[in-house]
Amino acid sequence: MRQIKAKEIEDTVAQLCLEANRNLPKDVLATIKESIDKERGRPKRILQKIIENCSLAEREKLPLCQDTGLPIVFVDIGKNLIIKGDLEKAINRGIKEGYQKGYFRNSIVDPFLRKNPQSIPAVIHLNISASDKMKITLMPKGFGSENASATHMFEPTATIEEIGDWVVKIVKEKGADACPPLFIGIGIGGSLDKAVLLSKQALLRPVDKVNSRLDLAKLEQEFLRRINKLGIGPLGLGGKTTALRVRILVHPTHIAGLPVALNISCWALRRASKRI
Length: 276
Description:
2 domains; four-stranded mixed beta sheet; 39% helix
């Protein structure tokens, strides 16, 4: 079986912290650029300034946003891989090193005492795959958008229209505070916690990749159309581009329920991955 040292994981995570916080993924950047032609006046200028901000951050090695987020780490571990050392400690050491090296803001505190801001611990999600490799994906999640997220336990008889009404309602109420244009992940099914995880995982799909399920691809477009009719626009100052993409993941659920989670990202959908 293949072996990997914890130090290699630590170094990889540290580099991902720098990459994710400084460089917007190319697919995300291209999508924002495409939206510029749809706007006029102030909304158009705002989108142009966002692109300028991204160029400046990459060139000067500065964070895309002052809120360098709560690090969310998705780890896909091959079952034929042996880790020499403590995986969780290696990830957190890597995050601490990366945030110190990048001079990124420390934002993590005790939930009640609200003291001693730091960059760790991360939120870590593990998945076992049939390989001898490991893939690590880092998503720094800013809380302007995270605070706009929501869950709802629907009755099993709920229709797609009712779910859509709820999604649009949440975006209408909270979207302007989440620094639009938005990327919206929706998780449907499973248990409450599974739906929330799905909503975050939905944001990992490349924004230029169409949903493999035709029915969900159509639903994503319909929800996106309805959200953009709200007219919230870039930075909440009006316009046609309230959201850039809607992404949906589903999982089988219990006959007595229908959990739905909505996870919102601002325009800075930050993520970086590496396979080791």
